[in-house]
Design brief:
By secondary structure, the chain is an alpha/beta fold. About 45% of the residues lie in helices and about 15% in strands. The protein is built from 7 helices and 6 strands, in the order βααβαβαβααβαβ. A 6-stranded parallel β-sheet has the order 2-1-3-4-5-6, with helices on both faces. β5, α7 and β6 form a beta-alpha-beta unit.
Length: about 170
């Protein structure tokens, strides 16, 4: 029996780096053949202009997202949940809630960072507190060893995996 993985990641639209990688993962025969994969789109923005903005529609979409995650975790009982969070700002706060929900439901969570920015906010009292809670008990995937400095304050090196990725060749 193949292990069940719930992927909570960004998928296009809108098209940006993390969403493109999310699409590659979703479409990967290698991943989908080895694991029982299930996918939830983490994005609440529907276009590039919508990124970074807050509105009632995005709040409603976020509430629906949380309900969907709760329902799927209960139904699937995944062995692992993979999440692609944002590193800082409003999008991080949204992803913080998602990861805390998963932890409360007893999920084993691995986060895959496609950007950096944790270190730029770690000296802010509230963000420092949230990062401490966010990273507790997580495994972290980074694109490069050089990015470890961004999360060093919160993550032990043995809890980090390096997975360089790029554009597949056609």
């Amino acid at each position: 029996m193949r292990p069940t993985i719930l992927f909570i990641l960004h998928m296009p639209p809108p098209v940006h780096g993390a969403a493109t990688v999310g699409k590659y993962i979703h479409d990967s025969c290698l991943i989908n053949e080895r694991f029982d994969c299930h996918y939830i789109n983490l994005a609440t923005a529907s276009n590039l202009a919508d990124i970074g903005r807050v509105g009632i529609q995005k709040v409603k979409k976020f509430v629906r997202l949380l309900r969907c995650i709760r329902r799927e975790v209960k139904r699937l009982k995944p062995q692992l949940v993979y999440v692609t969070p944002n590193a800082c700002g409003g999008a991080f706060y949204k992803d913080f809630v998602v990861v805390q929900l998963l932890k409360e439901m007893g999920c084993r969570v691995v986060v895959h960072y496609h950007n950096k920015g944790v270190a730029t906010r770690q000296d802010r009292g509230m963000d420092n507190l949230l990062y401490r809670r966010f990273f507790k008990g997580l495994k972290v995937i980074l694109l490069s060893e050089h990015l470890y400095e961004d999360v060093r304050k919160y993550v032990k090196r043995e809890d980090v995996f390096i997975c360089p990725n790029g554009i597949p060749t056609l």
